[in-house]
Model the fold of this input.
Amino acid sequence: MTGDKGSNRGESFDDPFCDTLDITFDKIGDDTATARMPVTKSHLNFAGVLHGGAVFALADATAGAALASKTGADGSVALEANVSFLEGVDAGETVIATAEIAHESRKTAELTVSVETEAGMRVASYRSRGYKV
Done:
């Protein structure tokens, strides 16, 4: 992933895994990123709500994009990550992840991501640490 800091690269961000989940990026730059994922039947778990793995993938990709806004495509790897699931989401809704760099040192960064529905209901909280290669 390469590009200019502060650019809106939703159309040019090429991530095959994100493509399989229909994740698109609205903004990547200035130490932040925003991405969205429409919830379809293929995103649901056995209980009929949005699968936690899909939420995690959305949050993780958004956090990675926020850090990449500083380091470039191959400039970081995840060291650890955790997610708290707060609410279930039904098919037909869209979830939006907003990531920011919360703390940064020379070689690592802490990232936080909030995942919400378009209506503003908070779905998950995510935190990770990335290593700048």
